[in-house]
Amino acid sequence: MFDDQFERAFRRLSSPFFAMDDVFEYTKPTNIQTAGPYYGYVKTIGEDGVPHVTEWGNAKPTSTLADSKVRDPYVDVSVNDKERTLKLVSEMPGIEKSDIKLNVSGKYVMLSAEHGDRKYEKKIPLPSKVDENSAKAKYTNGVLELTLSLAKEQPQGKLIAVE
Question: pTM to 2 decimals?
Fold first, then answer.
């Protein structure tokens, strides 16, 4: 008798949970996307305490994602005023060191790489002027590090000698 009452109470209390499980089973999407294109945000706090939000990826969220063969790699740019250097770090897995092409010109770094079906490309604006001849790049385990010295500031204007 006690077992019957317990079983009825258990069924009465647990039936909503079993019904909820059925709802989740029937509403599972059948076409879940498991690979690229990618998009995201990174929030960092600079040395001056100001937050910076950086977007990365090759497909901004819309109602339908664009099919792109070129990936937009995640890139982080940081400036070290004490050492007078600018460091650019980029994640590009699945490529070889020889596949990477870097071009520093003016206020931009053009980054591209292609290996098999993986292709990366990005034009990165630089927050400070840099010495293009000081560039040192290293690629290890899918992570590219580019270090540049900050350009020496030229005094503005021209000094005039008084006669």
Answer: 0.56
Range with the largest mean pLDDT of 3-12, 32-41, 84-93: 84-93
The one-letter amino acid code at 89 reads: V
Residue type, 103: N
Through-space distance between the first and last CA atoms of the chain, rounded to whole angstroms? 118
Report the distance separating Cα 56 and Cα 78, nearest Å. 16
pLDDT, tens digit, for every residue of 82-131?
A: 999 999 999 999 999 999 999 998 889 999 999 988 899 999 999 988 99
* Beta carbons within 10 angstroms of residue 135's beta carbon: 17
Separation of alpha carbons 79 and 3, rounded Å: 72
Centre a 10 Å sphere on the Cβ of residue 34 and count the other Cβ atoms it contains: 4
Q: Residue type for 113, please? A: A
Residue type at 90 in one-letter notation: S
